[in-house]
Every structure is written in structure tokens, then in C-alpha cells.
């Protein structure tokens, strides 16, 4: 089957304009990554977003949005009586804060149908998910989710994981540490952000973060750190890859676009270090545009530099 599958929650995004006017769109961390993967791969290459949808009009708009932009929905279930989660972005300069309404979102049940999940993921080249993906899944479905990922990995898929720790999604720090570490043991590629890892695990620096992840069995690690260089670990090699200077107006999609560009570059045969350089180029352009989803042409132009 091949292709790329990104797993998580497609949310309604409200972004503030002047006064009390708000603009509606669709986004979410793993959706953002799928967007940039779609932008940076051939149109014929399958890019799928694996989630669960409601059956309301907003859920229908989500599905139309995805498919009209070349992102499939695989075998994602449509669940009666449920609806999408929603978040609002408030900007303070280039930094942003989020307010969420997602407790009964359909995506929390994305692993409720094991057969559908297996059909969506089996045979993919790369399967990508995040700490937000596993935080929002109903706790009783997490082991099913992990089991399917293990099966796919054993069958040859590469598993990529960004811990993307958000404390408000977890009941406590210890639970987050345990579940994120369990997910990391399944991963071939880790794409953490250092401040998140420091907050959750107390890592003193990016090197200590990479050491901890390597001890869990991860072979390819990219520790992102905002405008600081990214630490790329591949086997016994460690390389600091400088970021790219940008005039940031909105950092919402920085890490997600980096991940999408990095994985697209790796699919294209670039080394981890070269892939990180490409990813920095894309992320630098994305933060110069408001919103998490920059035009695909913008991402393509940056990737081509």
C-alpha cells in the first residue's frame, strides 16, 4: 500500500483578527504535519489522515477540507452523535496561547475500531503520531492503538513520534511520562522539542534528552529547540544543525512543519542531517505567515532552496 499516515485530531481552529472577528479553519498538530508532507511529496504519493469523525456538518466540512487538499482519510470511522474538537488561538506578538474545547470530540475514539485502524495503517511507509494523539485517545483504547503500531512496525513500517507534551491533556506528570515513554519504545524516529522534554522529564540539555531516548531504543532522533540548533542523532553520529533566521509573526506551526519537511526529506532519500536542514528552511518560512497551515507553494519553495 505504501504512503504516509498521520494519526490524531483534526480540530476546528478559530484565529483572532481585529476586534471580535474570528476566522475559522481546520488544524491540529498531526494534521499540520500531514499538510506539509502533502505539500512536499509527489501528488501521486498517498498521504492519509487517520482519526475519527462525527457526522455533523462541521465534520463533513473537515472531510471535504482534507480530501480537497489531497489528504485522504483512509478508513477513519464516522461516529454517530459526535463532533469535532475546537480551539482558539490568541496571539501576543509572535507567541500564541490556546483555549480548547475537545473533551467529547470524535477523535478521542479513533482507536475504538481496531479493524478500521489496522486497515488505515497496515503497509504504510511511515506512520506518524504525537503525544497529543495518545493523550486524547480514550485510556481504554490506548493499548489497542499501541498494539496496532507494533504490528505495523514488525511488518516494515517506520514509526515516527513527536512527544509534543501538553500538561493540560494528562491527569498527572507520572502518567504522561509512562505513556510517552511506552510510545517512544515503538518509535524508529523521534522528533521531540527540548523545552517540552525538559518540562516533563527534567532533561538538562538536548544531549541528555537524546541519551534518554536512545536508551529507549530509538535509532534516529532530532531534538528541536526553537531558534537554537537542532541536535540530530543517527547511530553514533551527533550533529548540531543551525536554524534559519526568520521574521516570525506566528510560531503555531513551527514544529509541525519541521516534522513534515523532515519526514518528506527522509522519504526522498536525504540523510538525517540534510533532512533537518530542509526542515529548518520550511519552518522558517511557515512562522512568517499567520496560521499553522502556510500555503503549500510556500513550503515547496522553501524546501527547494
TrEMBL record:
Family matches, as InterPro entries: Carboh/pur_kinase_PfkB_CS (IPR002173), PfkB_Carbo_kinase (IPR050306), PfkB_dom (IPR011611), Ribokinase-like (IPR029056)
Name by which UniProt lists this protein: Sugar kinase
SUPFAM superfamilies named in the record: Ribokinase-like
Pfam family, one: PfkB
Organism: Brucella tritici
Family, per entry: Belongs to the carbohydrate kinase PfkB family.
GO-annotated cellular components: cytosol
Ranges where the Carbohydrate kinase PfkB domain occurs: 5-298
Record keywords: Kinase, Transferase
GO molecular function, one term: 2-dehydro-3-deoxygluconokinase activity
Source domain of life: Bacteria
BP-aspect Gene Ontology terms: D-galacturonate catabolic process; D-glucuronate catabolic process; DNA damage response
Transferase among keywords: yes
Amino acid at each position: 500500500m505504501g504512503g504516509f499516515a498521520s494519526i490524531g485530531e483534526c480540530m476546528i481552529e478559530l484565529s483572532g483578527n481585529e476586534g471580535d472577528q474570528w476566522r475559522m479553519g481546520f488544524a491540529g498538530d498531526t494534521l499540520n504535519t500531514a499538510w506539509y508532507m502533502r505539500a512536499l511529496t509527489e501528488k501521486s504519493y498517498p498521504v492519509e489522515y487517520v482519526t475519527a469523525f462525527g457526522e455533523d456538518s462541521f465534520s463533513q466540512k473537515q472531510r471535504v477540507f482534507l480530501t480537497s487538499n489531497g489528504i485522504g482519510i483512509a478508513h477513519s470511522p464516522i461516529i454517530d452523535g459526535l463532533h469535532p474538537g475546537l480551539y482558539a488561538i490568541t496571539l501576543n506578538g509572535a507567541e500564541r496561547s490556546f483555549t480548547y474545547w475537545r473533551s467529547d470530540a470524535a477523535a478521542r475514539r479513533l482507536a475504538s475500531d481496531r479493524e478500521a485502524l489496522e486497515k488505515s495503517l497496515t503497509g504504510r511507509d511511515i506512520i506518524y503520531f504525537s503525544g497529543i494523539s495518545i493523550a486524547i485517545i480514550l485510556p481504554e483504547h490506548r493499548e489497542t492503538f499501541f498494539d496496532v503500531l507494533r504490528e505495523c512496525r514488525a511488518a516494515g513500517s517506520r514509526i515516527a513520534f513527536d512527544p509534543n507534551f501538553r500538561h493540560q491533556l494528562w491527569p498527572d506528570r507520572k502518567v504522561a511520562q509512562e505513556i510517552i515513554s511506552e510510545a517512544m519504545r515503538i518509535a524508529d524516529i523521534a522528533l521531540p522539542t527540548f523545552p517540552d522534554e525538559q518540562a516533563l522529564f527534567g532533561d538538562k540539555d538536548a544531549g541528555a534528552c537524546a541519551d534518554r531516548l536512545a536508551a529507549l531504543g530509538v535509532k534516529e532522533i532530532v531534538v528541536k529547540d526553537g531558534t537554537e540548533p537542532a541536535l540530530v542523532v543517527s547511530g553514533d553520529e551527533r550533529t548540531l544543525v543551525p536554524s534559519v533566521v526568520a521574521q516570525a509573526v506566528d510560531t503555531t506551526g513551527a514544529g509541525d512543519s519541521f516534522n513534515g519537511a523532515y519526514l518528506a526529506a527522509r522519504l526522498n532519500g536525504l540523510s538525517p542531517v540534510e533532512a533537518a536542514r530542509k526542515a529548518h528552511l520550511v519552518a522558517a518560512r511557515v512562522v512568517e505567515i499567520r496560521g499553522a497551515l502556510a500555503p503549500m507553494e510556500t513550503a515547496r519553495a522553501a524546501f527547494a532552496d
